[in-house]
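Key idea: predict the complex, not the pieces.
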Amino acid sequence: MQNNEVFKNPLSLQLDPKLFEPATTQEKAQQVIMRDSVSFGRDALRRLLKNKIAVICMAVILLIALIAFLVPEFYPYSYTKQDVTAKNLLPFQYSQKEMAKIEKGEKLFPHIMGTDSLGRDYAIRVIYGTRISLLVGIVAAVIVVVIGIIYGSISGYFGGRVDMIMMRIVDIIYALPDVLIVILLYVVIKDVVSQSKNDLIVRLGAGMVSIFLVFGLLYWVSMARQVRGQILSIKEQEFVLYSQAIGASPARIIRKHMIPNCISVIIITAAMQIPSAIFTESFLSFLGLGVSIPMPSLGSLASEARSGLVSFPHLLVFPALSIFLIVLSFNLLGNGLRDAFDPKLRS
Amino acid sequence: MAMLEVKDLHTSFFTTSGEVRAVGGISFNLDEGKVLGIVGESGSGKSVSAYSVMQILTHPGRITSGSIRFRGQELVGSSEETMRSIRGNKISIIFQDPMTCLNPTFTIGNQLIEAIRLHTNRNRREAKERAIEMLGLVGINEPKKRMKQYAYELSGGMRQRVMIAMALVCEPDILIADEPTTALDVTIQAQILELMSELQKKLGMAIIMITHDLGVIAGLCDEVIVMYGGKVAERGTAEQIFYNPKHEYTKGLMRSIPNIDNDEKERLVPIEGAPVDMLNLPKGCAFAPRCDKAMKVCLEQQPEEYWVAEDHLSACWMNVKEATVLDGPLTKEDIGKIGRDFQEKGEEKGHE
Amino acid sequence: MSEANNSKLPNVLEVKDLKQYFSVTTGFLKSTLLKAVDGVSFSIQEGETLGLVGESGCGKTTVGRSILRLYKPTSGEVYFKGIKIGDQASLDLLHKKAQLVFQDPYSSLNPRMTVGDIVAEPIDVHHLAANKKERNERINELLAMVGLSSEQATRYAHEFSGGQRQRIGIARALASKPEFIVCDEPVSALDVSIQAQVINMLEDLQHQLGLTYLFIAHDLSVVKHISNRIAVMYLGRMVELASSTELHHHPLHPYTISLLSAVPIPDPKKAHAAKRIMLEGDVPSPLKVPSGCSFRTRCPRATELCAQVTPEFREEAPGHFVACHHL
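Result:
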């Protein structure tokens, strides 16, 4: 061994002999500080907030929601009132009748998005359409989460034959074409709905009811599969084995041990399902199967805009842009959530 | 000049949570044909040291300073080409889990032949013969049959032997073994260690054995480095470390492991506290918060590596305390003198 | 710790010819029987620690889990405190009075629960606390028993080191005031310097609370230190059972002998002087257990007899049981 090179340089400070007295327990303890307590949720939130795109998306969604639910209360125009003299106005354009009123001194709120072929203010119609889309999104999310979690956790926990049967059902449902079923359902329940005593159902119309029914029947399968997959892997964890060994009931184990460990998957899947549902509803409304007139949906607005497309492109641009923004924001937010919850990134 | 000289090596991982000084200045030498053991617990930096020598650190780790000289050639900062000519050829490594090193889609034979042809000039037929020879060398029976098998068809012990065969294809000067037997059953571990000992004598290669198991160290190693918190706590021959430890951590380890030969069932003497948090290294000695002999100076200042005998050094302030009479402030000259005294004693005894 | 098998104390656990087979799919429409545990019998006295050792595939973990009814045994009987385990009442007793400590400190604690809730799991499952105040008091008591402070009850498991998490697991096991604990490799995943802390704690708790342990591990030095008696398993069968010192100084079964000689000794002079008895080959797969004595494929004493007749697990010396034809 080469002593010379390895021997270090002596210290550059003088050392007080008192320093060679034993250190007390307190002094030693000071060196060991536990880092701040951070729960999994807060850790994920912190990471989410660092993601600029995700934050922008959250802001956009919030803004859209605020507009959709608050603006109609104050807006001077109604979405049903037709005015034939003011049809197909371009954004910020006024009809002659309106111009006359302005010259007389009346203050008229501008048509921010112009008017449609029946003279209805377009902006308020687009806003109502957005409201419908968001409602669809929320209802879809609720259905997907509730049914999906229950189904997936039962299938995953009990395994064996139960799991096999339940998953085959899921496979079958996956293979069903949702648009076709909506159409069939629509035909079937059209009469039932129009004669219904329930006010809400009549207002929604057969189209929307069939859409919600289809969500309830078909849309939760993706969530069920995801939850089942998570539960299968969690089942092998020793803390689950422990609970089983001390006699905890399956319900308790699923509720307290498994579902909380699936939260990230649940949130992400739900966030990804929402744009899918919104898009489906828009698409169906575009085909004429969604909301019944005069309630506007972004899809139906787009459909109506087709005839005057060349001369009045704004009638298509605004609803399309709306759909685009909502769906894109949810998709990007879903990506951001997935990154925020990803345990591999946790140090 | 020793075959491998590592001087003041610093390796850090630049993570999102901060810089982790995995290796904070270690130095050691390795001579031809010797077996060096690096022992330490998780987070001590023992594996990272070895990966630094081979420069196979994964991102975000990198060597921040220090020197690694292999046969006089400086490896830190050398080109990837230079390192490739050394890896697998002059310095080989085997890992704890052979499954991560063996490709499950190729047969064992294919992988061995690939390794052989990568580093030597043999044609395919010669390489195949050499592969069968290597399998025989590591004690695998029916080598011809094994050549056609896949990794998952072999047991843990067999896979480890295959990995050793692949590492020894070029008869390297140094074999680095990173916890090679930790995942194996104890009877298989004994077989593998026996094999490594035989091969070491037969091929005359040096081995760096990285492990947390003191029993493995005792059976195989000539020299031992004990690491804690990314630094060398103590370095010496196996006998010195086991029979005359001079660092409180080493002493604590020796006291806390149950000795199977001891029938008395005396209570174990554990080391209190928890292993050091590498993200929050204290300013003084990393072991001080857990040390029952800790002094105030231990918490304030990092100890240097002090020679305590001819081939034995320890980074512990207790050695300074024991070596001097503390009747006044210690100046740097005093500390330097303590070191020189030991050095002189070492020179008097004479060493190679 | 008394080593003698004090016959005056009652048996907390009695296992008679326990068999645990699993059906494993080995091919298309083909399945084989995996004989994880193939006829194991032993008993554990009150206050005793029985060590159970063996290498991978020997079935020691399965024995522990079968006793706790995580699997329903294929055949055999388990008596806990003299009561045969089978009906619901006996299972209720088992769930409260028999507990489990796991190997992996990282997967044995629910990452989404606070430490307090983790430790209180047995209390919640069995409704052992009348109200929230009592529950919290008990949590603090348990944490103190394992050397953790009560303010740590609101933290999450991932904030603690491996050794501390193991302590949390032990505190949890004590919550229902058990009498018997199955320790399944409780220190194998811990750093060497921490192992001693946890071993000492387990011993202290045993004395304080009068616990009985089944200590499953593969590290013979640790097992010898903590156990009164040791049982050695190989491929689902018990091959030897004796007191710790007797097993170490007078091992009778060839597997035990080679197992003991394979343990690395942390002492250079002894390590170099030791003569290793090397076993040839690898452990056979539990799916294809050799006929007769399962150890015969690697045994230096094997003869024709060993292939044809399974050796009986017999008492060859007082308290010392072995299953071998050629002692």
